[in-house]
Amino acid sequence: MSEAFNADRVTRLCEFLHQSPTPWHATRCMAERLEQAGFVRLEETTNWQLKPGKRYYVTRNDSSVIAFQLPAEKLTSLRMLGAHTDSPGLRLKPNATQHAAGWLQLGVQVYGGVLLAPWFDRDLGLAGRVHVRHADGHLESVLLNIDRPIAMVPSLAIHLDREVNAGRVINPQTQMSPVVMQSDNAELSDLLVGWLEEQHGLCAVEVVDFELGFYDVQPPSLVGLRQELVASARLDNLLSCFVGLEAMLECDASQGALLVANDHEEVGSTSACGAQGPFLGDVLKRLNAQVGGATEESLIQLIQSSLMISCDNAHALHPNFQDKHDEHHGPAINAGPVIKVNASQRYATNSVTGALFRDVCREADVPVQSFVTRSDMGCGSTIGPITATEVGVPTIDVGLPQWAMHSVRETAGTRDVDYLTRALVVFLNRPVLR
């Protein structure tokens, strides 16, 4: 196995991460690549006319996407890949404007399980979607990305808090509001109007609503003397979205295959476009109705003949905190994808799906690792168990090892990006799943 990483693929990854500060931007980037590759966009509100051998995609809420390819013959099974488009962060409150000590600040709410400390003293941009009303009364949804440093959450000097390095608790309500402008009367609404004109040429519009969040504008970078590492915001889980998309675009399209990237995993997946919602189930019903057996029984047969690989990053062995891992299950960065196992079904892996993935990695000439959390520590979860529960498809949870999960800047291995992509391509090309 080569010690070098796939430079072209890592470059595409960094571009994708840079262009995707929010789930809406990530979904748009994925849709653009799918269309460039010949995938046809579908709308959920229209009748679908699906043809064997063709490739399609559909979005929901503009923040979740499902792409699929149909075999030339009758659809009897699907090789499914799953990931999620959202990442923990700081989202604006609806009435975000606040003033203190002569500064305009914007009030935030915490989205997901954020590691708060790394957010201090970062150059922050702002991105998301904004809904505006035009002069003629019609509403429009537009994406906004202020990709320059417009805000910061300044630290308190150690001279004013001598115990800060002893583990000070961070209060997100009172201590995490970024400063934006030195002003006693500026309003967020006025800033939004100016940014909308700057980015979209929109004049005389009223801001009706928005979903916006801060993000670190430092671009992704390759780190290490041999560039062994890629450092970026939102590796969890845009790295998996990217790898899944790369695999879909590189496979030979001979088999039935599907990629789903859901929003809202970091907050429980309970939404219309989340993994616990009906998005994937709705698409599977429509596929079965048109190119499957068109009966309820054939839908069950399709699902049970399929397999889902849920991709979400894994905790890599940290050189400064090795005691946080089980000594036999500490995945190493750049040592291949990780099979995630939990006896309490926090991960959906079982021996059947695990064995199949190991065989896929063998065929792809890719190393594979296992992760089990320490028995005296809690375990996170993924869309894997949720999808398995909601849809019933046999599922395995895998991921690439990373450090600093849920930080404003995370770290993964450059060689691992290619390892998992190659394994997923083999999986998507397999004529028989079992």
> Biggest β-sheet: count, sense, barrel?
9 strands, mixed
Low-confidence runs of at least 5 consecutive residues: none
Tell me which CATH architecture of the largest domain applies here.
3-Layer(aba) Sandwich
The count of strands amounts to: 20
> What's the CATH H-level homologous superfamily of the largest domain?
Zn peptidases
Total count of helical runs of at least 4 residues: 10
Helix and strand composition category: alpha/beta
Pfam families: Peptidase_M18 (PF02127)
Cofactor: Zn(2+)
GO cellular component, one term: cytoplasm
Protein name: M18 family aminopeptidase
Can you put this structure into words, describing what you see?
With 434 residues, this protein is an alpha/beta fold. The protein folds into two domains: 7-87 and 233-429, Aminopeptidase (3-Layer(aba) Sandwich); 89-216, Aminopeptidase i, Domain 2 (Roll), CATH 2.30.250.10. It is 28% helix and 27% strand. It contains ten helices and 20 strands. The protein has helices at 7-18, 23-36, 172-175, 188-200, 235-250, 279-291, 296-304, 351-364, 383-391, 414-429; strands spanning 40-41, 55-60, 64-69, 79-84, 89-100, 103-111, 124-133, 139-151, 179-181, 206-216, 221-223, 229-232, 257-262, 307-311, 314-315, 338-340, 369-371, 395-399, 401-403, 410-413. The strands form three sheets. It has a nine-stranded mixed sheet with strand order 1-2-3-13-4-14-18-16-17, with helices on both faces. Strand 5 and strand 6 (103-111) form a beta hairpin. Helix 5 (235-250) packs across helix 10, helix 6 packs across helix 7 and helix 8 (351-364) packs across helix 10. The protein is globular and about 65 Å long. It is an enzyme of class 3 (hydrolase). Pfam families: Peptidase_M18 (PF02127). One of its GO terms (biological process) is proteolysis. One of its GO terms (cellular component) is cytoplasm. Belongs to the peptidase M18 family.
